[in-house]
Design brief:
The structure is a single chain. The protein contains five helices and no strands. It has 91 residues and is an all-alpha fold. The protein has one domain. Helix 4 (47-72) crosses helix 5. The protein is elongated, with a radius of gyration of 17 Å. It starts with a helix and ends with a helix. The mean pLDDT is 81.
Length: 91
């Protein structure tokens, strides 16, 4: 991350450094932050890279729901179980 930040200080308009920084942020476990940065610069990531970031965001959200429901020991009354829970629970 240090090198991407340094490259952006030297050349703030560097699309390559910003792209690499966004992908590093996603790999470090902060896909929501990566998606926010990518959304601010449409077209910076390839469609496959953006899809991957989106999938990780969705997976983390579903995983959080699974952990919340597991901690409660039950689903919240009156709230339908999201389909994403079934996908995340398969891990």
């Amino acid at each position: 991350m240090y090198y991407y930040d340094r490259a952006l200080r030297v050349e703030p308009a560097s699309r390559e450094a910003l792209r690499d920084r966004i992908l590093a942020i996603e790999r470090m476990g902060a896909p929501q932050a990566a998606r926010t940065l990518a959304d601010a610069k449409p077209g910076l990531l390839s469609s496959a890279e953006y899809r991957r970031v989106e999938q990780v965001v969705e997976w983390q959200n579903a995983r959080s729901l699974v952990m919340i429901h597991a901690a409660d020991g039950k689903l919240i009354a009156g709230v339908p179980k999201p389909a994403a829970i079934d996908r995340a629970a398969g891990d």
